[in-house]
Amino acid sequence: MHPLLHTKQNSACEDLMIALEQCHAKGFLWKSIGMCNDPKDQLAACLRAERYKTQSSNRNNVADKKSKIREKKREIDENS
């Protein structure tokens, strides 16, 4: 698995990553007949869910920062 996927953000998917790595280690023929498709699909779904959580958290943080900036601008305009 790509080293960047093994981060603390994706720790919920680590068992799926290991399962996919083990499946790929069984050889080319095993992969080519589609025996690793289910673990791959499960891992993709897990990573997608983790990415969605991160994105929603980031959106909330940005919204909070923007509201604070707007408040500061209002204070500056009122005091000017």
UniProtKB/TrEMBL annotation:
Superkingdom: Eukaryota
GO cellular component terms given for this protein: mitochondrial inner membrane
Region (Disordered): 55-80
Keyword tags: Chaperone, Disulfide bond, Membrane, Mitochondrion, Mitochondrion inner membrane
InterPro entries per the UniProt record, alphabetical: Cyt_c_biogenesis_Cmc1-like
Compartments where found: Mitochondrion inner membrane
Pfam family name, one: Cmc1
Entry keyword Transport: no
Compositional bias (Basic and acidic residues): 62-80
Function of the molecule: Required for mitochondrial cytochrome c oxidase (COX) assembly and respiration.
Family: Belongs to the CMC family.
Protein name (database record): COX assembly mitochondrial protein
Species of provenance: Staphylotrichum longicolle
